[in-house]
Amino acid sequence: MTTSETSRYVRLHVELVLEVAEPEELTGAALERVDGDEYMPGDERSHARSAVREDSAEALAYLIDPFDLVSEVPGVELAQASWSCEQIDYDPDAEEWDLDEEDEDLDEEVEDEGEYEEGGARP
Q1: Given this model, what pLDDT does residue 98 score?
Q2: Is 0.70 surpassed by the pTM of this model?
Q3: Is 5 within the bounds of a domain?
């Protein structure tokens, strides 16, 4: 496929696990963001303030903006974004949290593609 035939759009998947070490600081910063949003209607602001106080994941969702993550990347423009936050049980030693596992799967796919390109038969 030539460059002119490929899509100009790229989907970027990012998964982060964050430890909330100072929940009061997180909540305070989120409340400042909510209060500083001049376009947020009053009833929505009240709901947002309540949600931020009750749940650190909600507080984090008000502070993380996908546009901020890519705004200074040259040559790209954010076309669409969605994100969510949730509280989770996290054990860094558990296999389900092994981020390298996905890389191993990708390496196997690349190896398979390499065999195919070299004339090897696919199973």
Answers
A1: 78
A2: no
A3: no
